[in-house]
Design brief:
27% strand; 6-stranded mixed sheet; Rossmann fold; 4-stranded antiparallel sheet; 2 domains; 27% helix; 278 residues
Length: 278
């Protein structure tokens, strides 16, 4: 049987800046159509890896291939059109990365349309077909009632789902969700997770890479999990093999317990663990 084509294929990836090693020899594969996740604490290198995947940061050593294109030897702008990226912000800043920042003063439909042009604001006029497609995507993520509302007036969870719609405009082959539920309340978080589940259930679902701190955010469809600590993958494999109290306690530096209900993992920290944390 032929090996599946890879959406992400990296080997020995190292990122150094000055005397600091941010990524330390990462090796991983994510197949096309696969749902995978990276779990790890703040500062372990997760977002740096995402920047490498999208060509906004280049590795010091190693090999990285995304959608059969070798980073450093391909047209990054063309490759980014095949990747959907969602970060948990709509704020304008200097990180003009597709999916990362959007002009929150735009009507929601037009904010989604910025995804066609990979811009923060809308500097090109979208076609009628593009506008109709943007509206369709907003219906898909449960925002059919917010089509003409200003993006900045939406709730934080609604904004996050609008960014997912924006990331889908080019029908990406790889969808990267970098902490898509950060800062959301319970309902908002579950709405985002339900949206992700709906996307994964489609017959033509893209490869998905979820970046998160929280095991409960993993879709039951997740088939591969990588645990990250100090710029390294310290464990990788099927969720049932990787997600356990021993590995997570080591990664997070805190004694934890894990249980699985209805296909989802749940993490528990007992008060007795607090004695070791402060």
């Amino acid at each position: 049987m032929a090996e599946p084509q890879q959406a992400i294929d990296c080997e020995g990836l190292v990122v150094r800046r000055g005397n600091t090693t941010i990524l330390d020899g990462l090796t991983c594969r994510v197949a096309r159509g696969q749902a995978a996740a990276i779990l790890g604490p703040n500062g372990c290198g997760k977002t740096t890896f995402v920047r490498c995947l999208t060509g906004s940061m280049f590795a010091t050593e190693g090999r990285l291939t995304v959608l059969d294109q070798t980073i450093g030897q391909t047209n990054i702008l063309q490759l980014r059109k095949r990747i959907g990226l969602v970060n948990p912000t709509t704020d304008n800043n200097f990180a003009h990365v597709t999916g990362a920042v959007v002009d929150a003063a735009l009507p929601t439909t037009l904010a989604v349309c910025t995804g066609y042009f990979a811009t923060v604001g809308l500097y090109d006029k979208p076609t009628d077909e593009q506008i109709e497609h943007a509206r369709h995507l907003l219906h898909t993520v449960g925002l059919g009632h917010r089509l003409d509302h200003t993006l900045g007036k939406l709730s934080t969870g609604e904004q996050r789902r609008a960014l997912i719609a924006r990331a889908l405009v080019h029908k990406p082959e790889l969808l990267i969700l970098d902490e898509p539920t950060a800062g959301l309340d319970l309902r908002g978080r579950e709405q985002v997770l339900a949206t992700i589940e709906r996307l994964l259930a489609a017959s033509d679902a893209p490869a998905l890479l979820m970046i998160t701190h929280h095991v409960e955010e993993l879709s039951p469809r997740t088939s591969h999990v990588m645990l990250m600590k100090h710029g390294k993958f310290v464990a990788a494999g099927p969720p049932d093999q990787v997600i356990n109290p021993e590995t997570l306690s080591d990664v997070y530096g805190c004694r934890v317990y894990v249980k699985k209900n209805h296909g989802r993992f749940w993490l528990e920290v007992l008060p007795e663990a607090w004695l070791d944390l402060v």
